[in-house]
Amino acid sequence: MNVQEIMENNLRDVVQKHLRDNGFGGLWCPDEPCGCQIDDLWPCNEDGKYDCEPGYKVPCPGLPDCPHDADCDWHISGEKPKGGK
Q1: Low-confidence residues in the chain, pLDDT < 70
Q2: In the chain, which ranges are continuous DSSP H helix?
């Protein structure tokens, strides 16, 4: 493992711990229709490219509100779900 890989793994560990400790479900980007769960951060390999923010995992709202044609089970949202922690 090279230094870059070690740094990326450490960053991922720190971010995952922060998200879990604070009740978040993953990261989302307000300017892009994307989100990733805690255990799969940055699947786009674009860490640092977008202004990702902590968010809450919520069920897909379905059409017409889903930017992915309702082809998903969940979203990461900046809004805390009602009844959530």
Answers
A1: 46-49, 84-85
A2: 3-21
Residue type, 83: G
Burial (CB count <10 Å: 0-12, 13-18, 19+), residue 79: exposed
The ranges assigned to domains in the chain are 3-77
Report the C-alpha gap between 32 and 23 in whole angstroms: 22
d(CA 9, CA 15): 10
CA distance to 2, 16, 36, 38, 49, per residue, from 83 (Å): 44, 23, 22, 20, 32
For residues 20 and 66, give the distance between their C-alpha atoms in angstroms, rounded to a whole number. Answer: 25
